[in-house]
Amino acid sequence: xxxxxxxxxxxxxxxxxxxxxxxxxxxxxxxxxxxxxxxxxxxxxxxxxxxxxxxxxxxxxxxxxxxxxxxxxxxxxxxxxxxxxxxxxxxxxxxxxxxxxxxxxxxxxxxxxxxxxxxxxxxxxxxxxxxxxxxxxxxxxxxxxxxxxxxxxxxxxxxxxxxxxxxxxxxxxxxxxxxxxxxxxxxxxxxxxxxx
Length: 196
Known about the structure:
This is Flagellar biosynthesis protein FlgA. Residues 1-30 form the signal peptide. InterPro entries: RcpC_dom, SAF. The chain has 3 helices and 9 strands; from the N terminus they run αβββββαβββαβ. The protein has helices at residues 2-32, 114-117, 171-183; strands spanning 39-43, 50-51, 57-61, 78-79, 105-111, 125-131, 139-149, 163-169, 185-190. It has a 5-stranded antiparallel β-sheet. Strands 1-3 form a two-stranded antiparallel sheet. The longest helix has 31 residues, at 2-32. The protein is rod-shaped and about 110 Å long. It starts with a helix and ends in a 6-residue tail after the last strand.
C-alpha cells in the first residue's frame, strides 16, 4: 500500500516537474522574443519605378523600422527607384518626397527611342538632344542631368511612343525640354560613370 502510494507520488512529481519545465521554457521564450513593432509596408515582389499598386506591398510589423517607413500608400503615388522583395518602403523612395537639390525640379520627358532608355537607370547621368527635321543635326538641350525614375512602360504606350523618364533639372532646363519635345524628337547621350 505504501509502495503504491510512493510510486503514484513519484509519477506525479515527474509530471509536475515536466509541466514546470515547459512553463519555464515558454516564459523564457516570451521574455526574449523581440517585441512586435509598428506595421509598415514591405515590397511583396521586386518592384520597378512607376505608379504603385496596393498589391505591390504587404503590411508587416517590424521591431526596428527604418526612418521614414511608410505605413499606407495612396492612389497616384510614384515609386522613384527600384525595390527588392522584402524591402520596407520609405518616404525617400516616393517621387513626391524624393529629395532634390535646392532649386531643382522633377521634369518628365519622353525620349523617342525606348530601346535607348533601357540602357539607363535611376541615378544615371545623361544629356538630352533634340532634332526637329530629319537629316538635320540634333542640338543638345541639356547635359549632366540625373535620372530620377523611369516609369514602367504600359502595353498601350509601347515602343512606338518612346519612353517616359523623369529628370532632375532646373526650372529653365525643364522649360527648354518641354519646348523641344513639343515640336521635336528627344534622344539621350549617356555620361560614363564618374564623368561630368
